[in-house]
From TrEMBL:
Reactions listed under catalytic activity: N-acetyl-D-muramate 6-phosphate + H2O = N-acetyl-D-glucosamine 6-phosphate + (R)-lactate
Family: Belongs to the GCKR-like family. MurNAc-6-P etherase subfamily.
UniProt EC number: 4.2.1.126
Organism of derivation: Streptomyces cuspidosporus
Subunit composition and interactions: Homodimer.
Active site: 94, 125
Key words of the record: Carbohydrate metabolism, Lyase
Protein name in UniProt: N-acetylmuramic acid 6-phosphate etherase
Enzyme class: lyase
Amino acid sequence: MTSAADQEQLRAQLDTLTTEAFRPELAEIDRLATLEIARVMNGEDAAVPAAVATQLPRIAAAIDGIAERMARGGRLVYAGAGTAGRLGVLDASECPPTFNTAPGQVVGLIAGGPAAMVTSAEGAEDSKELAAADLDALGVGPDDSVVGISASGRTPYAVGAVEHARRLGALTVGLSCNAGSALAAAAEHGIEVVVGPELLTGSTRLKAGTAQKLVLNMISTITMIKLGKTYGNLMVDVRASNEKLRARSRRIVSLATGAPDPQIEAALAASDGEAKHAILAILGQVDAATAARLLSESDGHLRAALEAAQG
C-alpha cells in the first residue's frame, strides 16, 4: 500500500508525461456521432507512422545489435507490463509459426506472468525486483537482448528489466512513448516514439500501443531477415503446422522456384515439408540431404547455401 506522499509524487510524475496529457478539445467527444468519433480516432492514428519514422536510425541500430547476438545463439526477450507486456508476448508468440524459431529463442515476459495476458495484474508493474527475478529464471546473459517496453517510459518492471539485463551484460533496448524517459536512459538503445496525448486521457493502448506494435514488428521481422529466415520477401522458414500453412509453403516454393507442382510436392516430401530446403534442392539441383547440409553450413542463409550449391 503506497503512502499519500508516494501517491502525490506519482501523480506529479504522471502530470509531466505526454502520454497522460489531457485534451480539452476532446472533452465532449462522447456527444459526437459515432462516425465523427471514428474520424477523429482515425486521424489520431494517422500520425503514428510519422512518429515511428523519427526513430528509424535508433531502431535500426538496436536491430543490428540484436541480430548479431542472436546469430551466435542469443535470445530476444521482451519485458513489459499491461498493454506493453501483452504486445511483447504477442510478438514473441508469432515468431515460431512465422520464422520457425526454436522454443525460447524469442520470449515475452509480462509483469504478473501468463495470467496477466487475460486478467489485469497492474500491481505487478511496480516491482523492479520481479523483473530481475524473471530474467534470472531465464538465465539471461551477454549473448541475449532484452527489450523493455513501456508507454510512459517509467514503469518499474520495464525499467528494472533493462537495468538488470545491462548488469548481466545483455544488450538492452528501451521502447517508450515519452521523450526523456527513464527507460530509454537506462538502456543501451533508447527508442522514444512520441505520439502525443491519447484520444482517451492516459489510455496508452491506443496510439502508444499502435506505435509499440509497429516497432516490435520491425524488431522481430528485420532481425529474422538478417538471420536468413527469409528469401527476398518470402517466409521460407514458415512452420507448416496446419493445412493453410502447408498450402502457403507450397506457394512459397512455387514463387521462389517457378517449378511445376509435381516437382514442388516431391521436394517438400523429401525435405519433410521444409520450404527452405525444398527451394534449395530445386534451384541448386541437389538432393534433400545435401540441401540440409549446405543450409547448416551457411547458418540457415538460403542465398549463401544456393551460391555454395551452384559453385
